[in-house]
Write a structure and sequence with these properties.
The complex is a heterodimer of chains A (about 290) and B (about 375). With about 290 residues, chain A is an all-alpha fold. Chain A has helices at about 1-30, 40-55, 60-85, 90-115, 140-160, 165-175, 175-180, 185-210, 220-235, 240-260, 270-280; strands spanning about 130, 135-140. Chain A has one domain: ABC transporter involved in vitamin B12 uptake, BtuC (Orthogonal Bundle), CATH 1.10.3470. In chain A, about 70% of the residues lie in helices and about 0% in strands. Chain A has a two-stranded antiparallel sheet with strand order 1-2. Chain B has a single domain (about 40-360), classed as Orthogonal Bundle (ABC transporter involved in vitamin B12 uptake, BtuC). In chain B, about 65% of the residues lie in helices and about 0% in strands. Chain B has a two-stranded antiparallel sheet with strand order 1-2. The chains are: A mainly alpha (about 290), B mainly alpha (about 375). Chains A and B meet through helix 4, helix 9 and helix 11 of A and helix 5, helix 8, helix 10 and helix 12 of B.
């Protein structure tokens, strides 16, 4: 039993990571209807920036805040220069651009910050708390969970309870009719990218702190799991992304522990989950159904 | 939304261009012409381009060094896989980021049959095509329920999963999932052709065959069903298109193309590799990129895109001395630049240029062909424009 709980905790630890990256993906998707393959690499770059700032003697929290601000601006700039001109063109073009960014940002990060593994200090206290049953949970994990919770709540409030959120959603729903209502659609789309980039920067920095070290491949496998969580949750649900991040993380950890037949191919689990859920519920667990008109 | 396709043939059409059709193909119109009326200048340009390309393709292996021939052969197998994806995504509107997995299945099928069972390479190509086709059928069935981004993600899973499955079940050199058929197995069957030239011509012949097949397929009944499903699924079913059959069938054919490409890669690289966990994901992306920069929903597009991609990758490798790390950045930047300059891909751009040329040289007073409005908002609906 203790082992079981420990594995669940492990799973949650990874799950919050997947959830926080998934959150950024969902945010971009909700506000701009683009699936950003470069999300992970954008986060990677900001993570390196955070690390560099701490190397220069800045506190971790301050470094993360500055890096988030940088990511916010950079995200907006990317949207403005690369994504906006693609408006009205085939969505494939946007996909190619995000893939180009994926390659480019990764190699720029390696160029600026070197290829050696680096160590990121954690903003959370060290050590672990023991649970009732004797299993232990890292304070890091708890901190990450709290941050994620706050992020979700803030985003949910922003999107569902403010005028700005309403505008963002209106643009995501139909840019043209939003424009007719006097909403500056371009600015909203830019804001969507900027916010997602900032959230990615936060997620990346915390993930790197959670690991013993990180290098330029940090986000690649995480992105796959985050995509799994996003699909499972239905692309447009903030809570769905986070909850499904946890589900994917836990399922993965338990498979590693208990199912020997899948040794080495644990990734079957998130993928199998996606497939089953999508075949049964094509819009994911938390997605909204849409009615198609001809 | 029209469901007809009046896409121009991308191959130089030998023969007489049909006289100017008086009835404009419309939603309610009869059977649209196979290609739009083509002014003499455009026809000539196409024939010239076609002849030049064919001559270059046939002469290339005698002109270049073996290493370059290998690069060109890589472009050929990439083109075949990209064509497979093009049938699925460009013509049928189903996204797949999992074609790397089909490609991998093809590669390992060939490699295993050769190494463990002593088959002749050329025979294994047919086996891989059949096997990956069946595999595609299997994947195509659940794909009926999922669309757009969701389908992209499910198929992405395939590409991520494949190397792990290979690692678990393939026992190659030193217990690693790596199979290396001996070079001798791919020896030239024709006297006077070096091995690399033979590999090139064999791949080229297969590519031409498969491209002609794709051309016929997309221009026929099946192709009309495919594009109708792409443009408006619901509307297509109301006019009697067998939705499930079309989608699953396209998936299977498309997977078989990727499988053949995988087989050929074993000949050209003398290797089936399952050690790199992201290799087959990268392959999937390459197919997508080759298709898009070449021109989605065109016949020549995948070939042009594949050649461009392979040359770009090769030439950015050592562009800046001592800064190899930057190669992917330049490569990525080039991709972005191509999308910016040629949103419809190279073939789409050339086609537009030729059309403009043709309009100027002939046809005074004839209204320009109306462009089909692009109202595909979901991913994977690149509309073919005339």
């Amino acid at each position: 039993m203790e082992l079981f709980i420990e594995q669940v905790m492990n799973g949650i630890g990874n799950g919050v990571v997947y959830g926080s990256v998934a959150l950024a993906l969902v945010l971009i998707f909700r506000t701009t209807k683009v699936l950003n393959f470069a999300q992970g690499e954008m986060a990677l770059f900001s993570t390196y920036l955070t690390w560099q700032l701490t190397e220069w003697g800045l506190g971790v929290v301050g470094a993360i805040v500055i890096s988030m601000l940088f990511a916010f601006v950079a995200g907006a700039a990317i949207q403005w220069t690369l994504i906006r001109p693609m408006e009205g063109r085939s969505p494939l073009n946007v996909v190619i651009i995000t893939l180009g960014l994926f390659l480019g940002i990764n190699s720029l990060a390696q160029l600026f910050f070197g290829v050696d593994p680096q160590f990121m200090p954690s903003p959370f206290p060290e050590g672990s708390i023991s649970l009732v049953s004797g299993a232990r949970v890292q304070k890091d994990t708890i901190g990450l969970m709290l941050v994620l919770l706050v992020e979700c709540l803030a985003l949910w409030l922003l999107l569902n309870r403010t005028r700005l959120g309403l505008k963002l959603r209106a643009v995501a729903g139909d840019p043209d009719s939003a424009r007719l209502h006097g909403i500056n659609a371009g600015r909203m789309l830019m804001l969507g990218w900027a916010m997602a980039a900032a959230i990615g920067a936060l997620a990346g920095s915390l993930v790197a702190a959670n690991r013993t070290g990180f290098d330029a491949t940090l986000m690649q496998i995480i992105l796959v799991y985050a995509l799994a969580a996003t699909a499972l949750g239905g692309f447009d649900s903030i809570w769905g992304a986070v909850i499904c991040g946890l589900i994917v993380g836990i399922a993965d950890a338990l498979t590693i522990q208990y199912v020997d037949a899948l040794d080495g191919i644990e990734v079957v689990v998130p993928l199998g989950l996606i497939l089953v859920v999508l075949v049964v519920l094509p819009t994911g667990l938390f997605g909204k159904r849409t009615v198609e008109r001809v | 939304m029209t469901t007809d396709q009046t896409g121009a043939s991308a191959e130089p059409v030998l023969g007489v261009a049909p006289a100017d059709t008086t009835t404009a193909p419309g939603p309610a119109g009869g059977r649209p012409p196979l290609w739009p009326p083509m002014p003499r200048a455009v026809l000539t340009a196409r024939i010239v381009i076609g002849v030049v390309i064919s001559a270059a393709a046939l002469y290339a292996p005698f002109y270049f060094e073996p290493t370059m021939n290998r690069v060109l052969s890589q472009a050929i197998y990439l083109a075949i896989a990209a064509m497979g994806l093009n049938l699925l995504l460009g013509f049928n509107g189903q996204v797949s980021i999992g074609h790397g997995a089909f490609y991998g299945v093809g590669a390992f099928t060939s490699a295993i049959l050769m190494v463990d069972y002593g088959w002749t390479f050329e025979v294994t190509i047919i086996a891989s095509a059949l096997l990956t086709g069946a595999f595609g059928l299997l994947v195509g069935l659940p794909a009926l329920r999922v669309r757009g981004l969701y389908l992209a993600l499910v198929t992405l899973g395939l590409a991520v999963l494949f190397p792990r499955v290979a690692q678990k079940f393939v026992d190659g050199i030193g217990g690693r999932p790596l199979l290396r058929p001996s070079r001798r197995e791919f020896a030239s069957l024709i006297d006077g052709l070096a091995d690399d030239q033979w590999a090139y011509f064999l791949s080229l012949a297969i590519m031409v065959g498969l491209f002609i097949l794709a051309w016929n397929l997309t221009r026929g009944r099946m192709g009309r069903a495919m594009t109708a499903v792409r443009d408006q699924e619901l509307a297509a079913t109301t006019v009697g298109v067998n939705l499930a059959g079309t989608k699953v069938g396209t998936f299977a054919i498309s997977a078989a193309y990727a499988g053949v490409a995988g087989s050929l890669s074993v000949m050209i690289d003398a290797l089936a590799d399952g050690t790199n966990p992201v290799l087959y994901f990268q392959r999937s992306i390459e197919f997508l990129v080759a298709m898009t920069i070449g021109g989605a929903a065109t016949i020549l597009g995948p070939a042009v895109g594949a050649l461009l991609l392979v040359l770009l990758r090769r030439n950015t490798q050592d562009l800046i001395e001592g800064q190899e790390i930057l190669a992917p950045a330049i490569y990525g930047g080039a991709l972005i630049a191509i999308v910016f300059v040629l949103p419809e891909g190279v073939v789409g751009g050339v086609r537009r240029l030729l059309a403009a040329l043709g309009r100027r040289s002939s046809a005074k007073g004839r209204p320009p062909t109306p462009a089909i409005p692009d109202d595909s908002h979901d991913i994977g609906g690149p509309n073919e424009r005339t």
